[in-house]
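User: Fold this, then the next.

Assistant: Folding the first:
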Amino acid sequence: MEKEKIKALYFDKIAEINDYNKAYYNQDNPIISDYKYDRLKIEILNLEKKYKFLKSKLSPTKTVGYKVSGKFKKIKHKIPMLSLSNAFSENNIVDFLKKVRNFLKLNNDYKMDIIAEPKVDGISASLHYVNGQLKLGLSRGDGITGEDITLNLKTIRNIPVRLKSLKFPKNIEIRGEVYISKKDFKNISNKFANPRNAAGGSLRQKDPLETKKIPLQFIAYGLGFVKEKSFKTQSEYLEQLKKWGFKVSQHINVFTNIKDIMKNYIELENKRSEIEYDVDGIVYKINDLNFQKRLGYISNSPRWAIAHKFSSTKGISKILKIEIQVGRTGALTPVAKLQPVNVGGVIISNATLHNEDEITRKDIREGDVVTIQRAGDVIPQVISVDISKRSPGSKKFIFPNKCPSCHSKVVKEFNSNTKKKDAITRCPDPNYSCKAILKEKLKHFVSKDALNIEGLGKKVIDNFWNKKLIKYPYDIFNLDLNILKKFDGWGEKSIINLKNSINKSKKILLDRFIFSLGIRHIGQENAKVLAKYFQSVQKFFEICKKLNTDNQNYLDELHSIDGIGISQIDWLKKFFLNKQNLIIVSNLINLLDIENYRLLVKKTPLSGKLIMFTGAFENNSRSELKAIAENLGAKILSSISKKTDFLVVGSQKPTTRKINEAKNLNVKILTEKDWNKIMNK
């Protein structure tokens, strides 16, 4: 499969998983919501396992936590509470450490301390202390905004209301995990599906007295906002936490080599059952806090940490039926409907079968007894078939040659790179005739990472579609809500709430709008890259409409954007070639208040500058220099054009061709010395 197409498939599945976050984290009954969340997540992580280049740039999920419920006051985190990239093998850890060394430009002889901490399977929370007094407690929320659950957190007995030591920063945010011990959970297991859900449900009680009834505990491990810190490493910080009165894991070690890291991993996995709380892996962090600061973040995860998941939990079930689901990109995904089975504390009723090739390779059939695996203790998948228990009348599953929704002949696109057909079977639907694709596009449009319209969940979209109230995204904003009074379940309050939610969604950031369009190969990351480059929806729309003209300049401009490849450009061309898409985008631009992309930095000498780097640099890696430049408001290019402001040339092995191109186009060339002068201003 072509690399760019693999990335596109990966981004598409990430977009879908966010639809399940609210159900997974905010509902008291986790059985269905956990399954839905996990079913999709396995597809993402399987891609990461198979294609290592995905792990280098993207985290397993592009969402962090859950969308705030509205029960509590919403407060923005001073520093985002981000998720972690995942690792499942020694090679993943080696790759992680290699990237850290390259970014920091450390040689192999440098002994870099790695701190290993058990990954507690609980609910993340942050505690804000001012002059040693607990003033505010927040949930993770969506990673950017959390819920004020201060009163509920204060009911947890081992959270200090006041820091015990006299030596503490005037203002500090301490992060950790709220959990229920295995022993305590036995006494309340009849009320909750698992300890994690018990902790989550308890923290979101409106009455703190109800929260107090549940034996919650808090274990500290993370540092958020802080002023005047006296510690230089994560291990020093953890020791300080103990002095302040916090519980810290006893199973923490510092290592300098992969051999000891893996030995510790095996030892902890073998004795995980003996630990008082649920542990689903180990978190590795760069111990040096200054290194952490330099490494910074990529997307929704830090560069300086990674979660190493423990091996999977397995169970046996029976496939009752194999169903074909059609996604918004036309991909036909086979899903096994299972006899419900408890795997590691979670009831699994469905599992993805990925594609036709996977079914053929494993010879999976309806009625088969199969082994179900939850990779990393969370993710469900079918790993094998018990042939000995197959019934004599069993028949091979025949993958449909027509779309189950619109009955169009399905296709497997030819991959020009591999010279083979792709594994993914798709409904081509170029003319908006497939009901399933249209509905999935609408669901994507209103999803959390797009328009984020509360009250327009999957079932509501299906209902509105069936009643012919909506067909295209812009129909949502022209919807006569008074019609809803005729339908069951729609009272005055729910109609008002939906109206407010729709109106609220009209104000949207440019990158979210681009992502909402559901253009194939344009996931969240590519949408951000495009938004950052074009800055306004008018410019984005203007350029994209002209991609199908004979003017090569428009194509060259897109090709120069760092992070945008051939596949992304091809699908932008295809999308905007479709007349219906042009109508949809044009109408949406008129209906919505799309905010121009704004750099979250103060004006600097590099603000808005188009910069390209070449060669190796003496004191910093090129990756770090790019990150610094972007933080200062610059746009990073992958190729030179006449619009390029600077070509920054490293002192070691620069590309002569790029230098010559810059000279021919009169692009200003900066030496490493010139660059350092700009940075030191």
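Now the next one, as you asked:
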Amino acid sequence: MMDVNGLISASVQLFKEEKYAEAIETLHQAWDAITDKSTQITEQSWIQSGLGRCYFEQAIKTKDTDKADKLFGKAVKHYQEWSRFAKQLADEQNNIQEQINAQYWLGRCYFEQTIKTKDTDKVDKLFGKAVKHFQKGLRLAKQLADEQNNIREQINVQYWLGHCYFEQAIKTKDTDKADELFEKAVEHYQEWLQLAKQLKDEQDSIQEQISTQSWLGGCCFVYAKKTKYMDKAGKLFKQAAALFKQQLRLVGQLEKEQIRIQQQMFAQVMLGHCYVERVKRIKNTDKAEVLFKKQAGKYLLAVYGQLSQLDETEKEEIEKVIRSGLRDIDYLNEDWDSYFEKKKQETQESLFKGETSQPQDAVSTVLAVLHIPPIELGSTPLAHYTSPHVCHKLFGIGGNETASPMRIGSSTYMNDPSEGRGLLDLLNQQDLELENKADGASHNAFFTCFSSRVNDLNQFRLYGKEDSVEASGCCLVFNKNGDWLKEVDVSVPFRSLSQKSGQDSDGLPETGFSDNKYEKLPLYQVAYIAYKDEYIAEKKCRIWFPSQKEPKFGIRLKPVGNEKWHQFRLKKLKEALEELIRFFEDKSAVSDDDKEALEYIRYLFKDFAFRDEEEFRLLVIKPIDSEEIEYCGTTQSVYIPYADIRNLADEVILGTNYEKTGNQRKAEVFRYQMKQKCPDVKVSRSTLPINPPNK
């Protein structure tokens, strides 16, 4: 039978093998083997530390947020016990070191729980607890006798304190509060920088300074993108660029070649993006714009030329980032051919591994045309119309203690009964069932819809009604400041399709930038299919088939952003649809894989009758048995959670008849509650002319 130390050693091995349940059981055996708890304090300290780590790792790895919260709670209890035993250690310096370690892991618990939680109302409280423990660790670190160890421990804590404030600043919707939090993050990163300069090992000191400059630059960069003050954004981008240039100079002093190359490339990538964002967001003189675009291209192309020096994994990651920057530069330079090819290539590689059949190539073209990335959308505001009841739930007001995420709903019961069929009809690819029963669809489309028609009478009348009262709903406005769409991943909506069609899921991009991958969904514009009759003017559609002279059906696509780019888009869309029409004419040559390719785009076309909606969509294709689909008993519907929109919405416009339903709602109460919960979301009233409901 193993003694206490033997059991502890066995648990360590089990932990390394990620057998956490077995490790926990072994540690409990070790704990029970210590009959006199006034002895073997060191061993008891180790056991509590090990139990905390096991629960922590389980919490990190689980996708169930409720389960994660419970596991983090257990980890915290064991880390608190660890801290208690650490204080009993006889050796003073060991006592302090163990307390520092315990405080670090307590801080990490609360930090990681904050990142993982869906309950945004808990965020500030959890960050506060994390900061409290890191600050306690900082005070203890200053008591260490070994000077270099003292500095290293302070460096670690300053990094995590800066990281806490940085992440909290990103998550908050209150811009004034975000400003304060970013400033605090910068203060801690600067403390980190000063400590890094005190390290005796020269290379170690340089590396720490490089890391600090990187985080300081990243903080200023994100701060610049988030602030609503354009002058301030310009100064912050300039500051970020200066910090990345300083990082670049420090990198040149590193002795290890591979590390030097990697970090040089990172600094250059960030410099390139600093200049791109300055052009996109800041009003400059023509001369300044030319300079910034030139600088952006210089740094990004320099990295592109160095990619061969990286391993394949690193190369792929950096190439994605570079590509998005170079693509934006092409758009800013109005190099439409190059811009479009980069968009299309990204789609092909993400969905089809770059090897496409004829229909897949045409599908990639359609997706590249209809995908609206941030640079194309600019500051165009988009509206989402919903009922007061749902609006209150989304913002966590009106009796709702917590906010609910916006839902991506099933297409099956949308207002358009022909949803997803228009394109199939166009290509004469209807799935006719001759039997008296049919199987359910293998792919289910889920989407949430937006319109470029903000505060629109017709939209108010149709959507978001309460008690059947027209214009009683709410218009949620997004993207007024051009900051709604984040870094997107074009593979996210279609991963189940890619996997089903035999693509290697390992090659698909993993979730990044956000704990919620659906926040990275690309935005698609809906195109409308018209069947020509004597009442549809030809000018209503810019594309007609089979020809402009003999129009039978047309495609309507509203311009977004640059008119020259829109004309280019129309040309590419026409070519792709003509290619699909020709391909699917010979039904004998059409395989199941060819039909499958249409699943990627069929929900991006609607009937011409809905053209006034000017719709944009966030789209997800999933099988009905996907674990990501949830059921709502209240609405008797299935959906996929999208995101907490309190960090995304800019304004709520209350419909003209908001106060005139049977629920006796009051606009001033809505304003008051929103001011308490979401102070940066503007609230206004629509004054569109519509009669009040009949009494």
